UniProtKB/TrEMBL annotation:
Cross-referenced Pfam families: AMP-binding, AMP-binding_C
Family as reported in the entry's similarity comment: Belongs to the ATP-dependent AMP-binding enzyme family.
Keywords: Ligase
Domain AMP-dependent synthetase/ligase: 2-356
AMP-binding enzyme C-terminal domain segment(s): 418-493
Protein name: AMP-binding protein
Family annotation (PROSITE patterns): AMP_BINDING (PS00455)
Gene3D superfamilies, alphabetized: 3.30.300.30, N-terminal domain of ligase-like
Native organism: Piscinibacter gummiphilus
Length: 511
């Protein structure tokens, strides 16, 4: 990749890779002047934007952590991350500052980035007046000569994860070895089938591990990078056709949204330039994967991983067609085990908790301010994030569900993801979540929260009949409720605790 010929596009704005790196070198000098050094933290609370990437590269230069703050967060949530990470600087879109200004810890320098016009239009945002004394990104950045010191090994992004129950935990990378730095880049490129000169888009929010890592890879290898402020299925197809994009990284909910476009809309756009589309982040319904292969061809690559372990498996379209539902085999150098509750390794075909040792394929990590929690997830050098699954006889991994989402009804383990996959194939269903609710007889029963597809009016009886025709009777939801939308964040992560809470609160219990 040549920075002089690399082009970054965000709305109507264009920037060369060289300009991006010059801006980031100036910002690095500015951060250093504010006391940011190796191992310190700079928080960024922004939607996808070019200054986000400038800040990312600037923090890299100093060997500091970039704390990716979810821009949806309200004051209490954002305040916790700023305090827990001990960030010295907060870089934030101007319109977001009002919602968090009161919780910014004293001593933290706030630098505001003007919210660009295409973003205010896309989100319906009103212009924001900044409080006195707040620095503005371009003027502040350009007041410094570029940072000339030799770059130090980057520590990457301090990502806070699993905030659906209790406070989120910060996954903090440790310096690691040169082999581990090289290994994580190698795996990222391998799983995304990346190549020098590719043309790609940053589609998901940069506060999430997958898009954040994908953006870093794109900056290393891509000639064209389209930065999308928000996901829109048809706008993505337009970008693929207009910029002849070759590589994408998506999540299953985005694939569902693409498939829900009308056949006429889908046929309008030429996507023949695509060489590889990687998806991960949550299990992909088999019907969705098959439909995408039928539409885009055998270019879909699936991966399984976690913020802690990085990308773990690689599953090609060919392997998926052999073993529908698999997320692939572990990448060379990973050790993957399926363990029961006592820590015993389970044989092929038996469901248990997934444990991974990445070896030299990822930097070591701890949890910010919670080393005991880090130790609690490890067994014999392998770590878990609570996912359940099994390996088949050929060593391919299948994900069944999150351990905490598993429902035990009458002593039977039920994995809601399987039922969700079946319901997403229903043309009357746009989105769905299945979860456990209290039941006097069975302990737990199944509930389904359904978002109807546009123009459709499904009934509870019809939803239950759809499941009953395809799965065992004990997997049919007892309760079906309809919603206009489900509580998801930008990468599609579903906050099931918000759906479960009203049912369990009636018993005076938290979940």
């Amino acid at each position: 990749m040549n920075p002089d010929t690399q082009v970054l596009i965000c709305g109507e704005r264009r920037m060369s890779g060289s300009t991006l790196r010059l801006n980031s070198a100036r910002a690095a000098a500015g951060f250093a002047a504010l006391g940011v050094g190796q191992g310190d933290a700079v928080a960024v609370m922004m939607r996808n934007d070019l200054p986000y990437l400038e800040a990312m590269l600037a923090v890299n230069r100093l060997g500091a952590y970039l704390v990716a703050v979810n821009w949806h967060f309200q004051a209490d949530e954002a305040g916790f991350l700023l305090a827990d990470s001990r960030a010295k600087v907060l870089v934030i879109h101007a319109d977001l500052l009002l919602q968090v200004a009161a919780v910014v810890p004293s001593g933290v320098t706030v630098i505001a980035v003007d919210t660009p016009a295409e973003m205010t239009s896309a989100y319906g945002i009103a212009a924001a007046a900044l409080p006195p004394g707040v620095l503005r990104w371009p003027a502040w950045r350009d007041g410094f000569e570029p940072w000339r010191a030799a770059p130090v090994p980057t520590l990457g992004t301090l990502l806070y994860t699993s905030g659906t129950t209790g406070r989120p935990k910060g996954v903090m990378r440790l310096p690691g070895t040169p082999a581990q730095h090289a290994g994580q880049l190698r795996v990222r490129a391998l799983v995304n089938r990346a190549r020098e000169g590719m043309r790609t888009a940053v589609v998901g929010p940069l506060y999430h591990a997958g898009p954040n890592a994908g953006a870093r890879l794109a900056l290393e290898m891509a000639d064209v990078i389209v930065v999308m402020p928000r996901f829109d299925a048809e706008l993505l197809l337009q970008a693929v056709e207009h910029y002849k994009l070759t590589h994408l990284s998506l999540v299953p909910v985005m694939l569902v949204r693409l498939l829900k476009l009308s056949p006429a809309v889908r046929a309008k756009y030429d996507v023949s330039s695509l060489e590889n589309v990687t998806h991960g982040g949550s299990p992909c319904p088999p019907e969705v994967r098959r439909a995408m292969i039928d539409w885009w061809g055998p270019i879909l690559t699936e991966t399984y991983g976690s913020t802690e372990a990085g990308l773990v498996t690689l599953g090609t379209s060919e392997s998926w067609l052999r073993f529908p539902g698999t997320v692939g085999k572990p990448v060379d150098g990973f050790s993957l085990r399926i363990l029961d509750g006592e820590g015993r390794i389970l044989p092929a075909g038996e469901v248990g908790e997934i444990y991974v040792n990445p070896g030299d394929n990822a930097l070591p990590f701890t949890y910010k301010n919670d080393p005991a929690l880090r130790q609690s997830i490890e067994r014999d050098g392998h770590i878990t994030n609570g996912d359940m699954g099994y390996l088949n006889a050929e060593g391919y991994l299948f994900i069944t569900d999150r351990k905490r989402d598993m429902v035990i009804s009458g002593g039977v383990n039920i994995y809601p993801a399987e039922i969700e996959h079946v319901l997403l194939a229903n043309p009357e269903v746009l989105d769905v979540a299945v979860f456990g609710i209290p039941d006097a007889e069975y302990g737990e029963a199944l509930a389904a929260a359904v978002v109807p597809a546009p123009g459709c009016s499904p009934t509870p009886e019809g939803i239950r009949a759809w499941v009953r025709e395809r799965l065992a009777g004990y997997k049919v939801p007892k309760v079906v409720d309809f919603h206009t939308a489900l509580p998801r964040e930008g990468m599609g992560k579903l906050f099931k605790n918000q759906l479960r809470a009203p049912y369990w609160a009636k018993l005076g219990r938290n979940i």
